Automatic annotation (TrEMBL):
Gene Ontology BP term (one): mitochondrial proton-transporting ATP synthase complex assembly
One Gene Ontology cellular component annotation held by this UniProt entry: mitochondrion
Keyword Mitochondrion assigned: yes
Name of the protein described by the UniProt record: ATP synthase mitochondrial F1 complex assembly factor 2
Location in the cell: Mitochondrion
């Protein structure tokens, strides 16, 4: 699954965390490189612009323990033309957020926030009023639920009840164990993926290689797609929206993957 090819697609929406270098609108550097730092307990990697270490909005040097992530961030900067496309540098934005941590997030607080998505997960709500939509949800969403149940040992079931599905304490605990099995930086990526898809179940499936990023966006926008077939759609508008979602989700998933793999031992 080639997440990297989707990340740089043009976007009209800026991400929130902007580093000091990102505040400049024009490219102000020529050479991009990474620098290995062995002064800490484990090797750390820094991105340099003309020899100067890239800093976050909070003024901290950006340093990561994943060489592949450092190279991917460096590639975002190297790929910029005369004008900086701020919104296209999503890995940089996620790395800045994880470094500065402006909301003072902890693994426990991120897990708590993500668990809220389980009870309100889009995939668990099936529309009982529209036959065409309900059939599409059963066909396309149920496999996601089955994959999740198989991998985590949960017993999630979809519902047509407006009050939502019943999620047992045991199932929540299983989700929480999986969430907390990720390192802190990966959790920032998981949260971004979940917020983009509006579904922890969809994020779980794409991160566990059950579906592609393209398929994930199609599934996340299933209701809109079904309704568009009935009522028509403004294709160019939805196309731009889907490109934006795909770029966000791909960056989030790649961020999780690269933070879980510090070397080039595993294929991307």
């Amino acid at each position: 699954m080639n997440f990297l090819s989707y990340i740089g697609r043009r976007s009209n929406t800026n991400f929130a965390p902007l580093g000091s270098a990102l505040l400049k609108k024009q490219r102000f550097y020529k050479k991009v490189d990474i620098l290995r730092d062995d002064s800490e307990s484990k090797p750390m990697f820094k991105v340099t612009l003309d020899g100067r270490v890239l800093k976050t909005q909070g003024g901290k040097q950006l340093k990561v323990d994943s060489e592949p992530l450092a190279l991917a961030i460096a590639e975002e900067w190297a790929g910029q033309t005369q004008n900086l496309e701020i919104a296209s540098m999503r890995l940089t934005g996620l790395a800045f957020t994880a470094t500065d941590n402006p909301l003072k997030c902890t693994p426990a607080s991120i897990a708590s926030k993500l668990l809220e998505y389980v009870e309100s997960d889009t995939v668990l709500y099936h529309n009982e009023e529209s036959r065409s939509l309900h059939d599409a949800q059963v066909k396309h969403w149920n496999p996601l639920i089955e994959n999740t149940n198989k991998e985590l040992g949960t017993v999630l079931k979809p519902t047509g009840n407006i009050f939502g599905p019943e999620i047992s304490a045991e199932d929540k605990a299983k989700f929480e164990r999986w969430i907390l099995s990720l390192n802190e930086w990966s959790l920032h990526g998981l949260q971004y993926a979940t917020e983009t898809a509006k579904s922890l179940i969809i994020a779980f499936n794409v991160l566990n290689w059950k579906i592609t990023a393209d398929e994930a966006i199609e599934l996340a926008t299933l209701e809109r797609r079904v309704q568009s077939k009935i009522w028509g759609a403004v294709e160019w508008h939805h196309g731009l929206e889907d490109e934006e979602l795909l770029s966000r989700l791909s960056a989030a998933c790649l961020f999780v993957y690269l933070n879980s793999n510090n070397s080039f031992d595993k294929p991307l």
